[in-house]
């Protein structure tokens, strides 16, 4: 049962954005008592060691031999695999949640992909969400110049806006607008001195942490994408509330967010083939995809999510959460316009309905995935 798996939260944020301050605060909170904290300290000032020494023995694992996103992903797999017996007493696991703190320069995508797809992890854990700290006093410049920071913000399920007390109010407003356009559905919290309630960082995934029932509306939050489209007009998909057109180097880093709503039930072979094609052709620039799909012949909706070229295994929910049975797909992309995605899907559906091979081989996939 996916709802009984241990949730894993990825805490990320650029150098100096207050990530460690947040974690230092969090680990003092009783709400984090049964949380395993994995810290990737690699060439950075890490968690307060004086504080760590006051924590229960078995609640913090330091991984310092490399960077989680590139060199030691295998170590993360074995750490999570072994944690079950390493941190148990009398056969009882001592933790029911995991927080992984990345380095400031880490790319969250490969770590999330590992959490979503490696069997020894997915048998026991489920990826809950990405939490990203953003320093309000200098994030504009960081987002302009550091692609890693922009990606961390774009991939987040929750944005912790730090140092709000030190930033100019006008700058805070401008930055919040920019973040809204980059990533409209992320929960946004202003944080002073790292003080944040643990509950606000958790329960970001599909399952409501209290009821263990899928909460599709909160998880998908497509309203936020639709609102952002309305607020920013036709070009919102590639805008970020900011004028950077003079800087050609930024061209490839344009992050946009949008939502597709499809009225008709879909053929499961078609949607699988189309998604696989999109991810193989332009997965690098598909930072996040989430969706709920009405597929012919299924009583409940299919839930999909993906990070760049990797998709989480599709999951069927037992029932629709509401009378709205439309398929909804939300995208956060880098330099891929909503119109491009719509046109691709439209062409794919037409070719499929006419029994033709699509320009890039839908016919082959179709035979491989009969419905
Ligand atoms: Zn790395």
From TrEMBL:
It comes from Thiorhodococcus drewsii AZ1. Belongs to the SIMIBI class G3E GTPase family. ZNG1 subfamily. It catalyses: GTP + H2O = GDP + phosphate + H(+). GO terms for molecular function: hydrolase activity; nucleotide binding. GO terms for cellular component: cytoplasm. Coiled coil: none annotated. Zinc chaperone that directly transfers zinc cofactor to target proteins, thereby activating them. Zinc is transferred from the CXCC motif in the GTPase domain to the zinc binding site in target proteins in a process requiring GTP hydrolysis. The keyword Chaperone applies. Residues 255-349 form the CobW C-terminal domain. InterPro entries: CobW-likC_sf, CobW-like_C, CobW/HypB/UreG_nucleotide-bd, P-loop_NTPase, Zinc-reg_GTPase_activator. This is Cobalamin synthesis protein P47K. It comes from the Bacteria. The keyword Hydrolase applies. Keywords: Chaperone, Hydrolase, Nucleotide-binding. Pfam families: cobW, CobW_C.
């Amino acid at each position: 049962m996916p709802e009984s798996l241990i949730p894993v939260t990825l805490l990320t944020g650029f150098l100096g954005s207050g990530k460690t301050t947040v974690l230092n605060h969090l680990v003092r909170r009783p709400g984090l008592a049964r949380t395993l904290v994995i810290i990737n300290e690699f060439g950075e000032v890490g968690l307060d060691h004086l504080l760590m020494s006051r924590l229960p023995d078995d609640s913090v694992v330091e991984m310092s031999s490399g960077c989680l996103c590139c060199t030691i992903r295998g170590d993360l797999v074995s750490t999570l695999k072994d944690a079950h017996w390493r941190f148990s007493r009398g056969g009882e696991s001592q933790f029911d949640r995991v927080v992984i703190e990345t380095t400031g320069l880490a790319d969250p995508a490969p770590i999330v992909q590992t959490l979503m797809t490696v069997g020894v992890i997915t048998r026991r854990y489920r990826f809950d969400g990405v939490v990203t700290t953003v320093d309000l006093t200098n994030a504009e410049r960081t987002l302009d110049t550091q692609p890693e920071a922009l990606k961390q913000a774009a991939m987040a399920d929750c944005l912790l806006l730090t140092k709000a007390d030190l930033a100019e109010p006008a700058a805070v407003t401008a930055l919040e607008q920019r973040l809204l356009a980059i990533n409209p559905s992320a929960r946004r919290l202003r944080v002073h001195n790292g003080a944040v309630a643990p509950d606000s960082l958790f329960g970001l995934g599909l399952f409501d942490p209290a009821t263990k029932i899928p909460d599709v509306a909160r998880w998908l939050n497509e309203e936020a994408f639709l609102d952002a489209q309305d607020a920013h007009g036709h070009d919102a998909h590639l805008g970020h509330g900011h004028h950077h057109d003079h800087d050609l180097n930024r061209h490839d880093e344009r992050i946009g967010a949008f939502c597709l709503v499809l009225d008709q039930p879909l053929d499961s072979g078609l949607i699988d083939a189309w998604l696989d094609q999109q991810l193989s052709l332009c997965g690098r620039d598909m930072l996040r995809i989430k969706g709920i799909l009405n597929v012919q012949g299924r009583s409940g909706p299919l839930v999909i999510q993906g990070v760049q070229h990797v998709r989480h295994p599709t999951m069927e929910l037992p029932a629709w959460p509401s009378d709205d049975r439309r398929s909804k797909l939300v995208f956060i992309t880098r330099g891929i316009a909503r119109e491009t995605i719509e046109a691709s899907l439209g062409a794919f559906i037409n070719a499929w309905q006419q029994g033709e091979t699509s320009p890039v081989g839908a016919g082959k996939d179709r035979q491989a995935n009969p419905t």
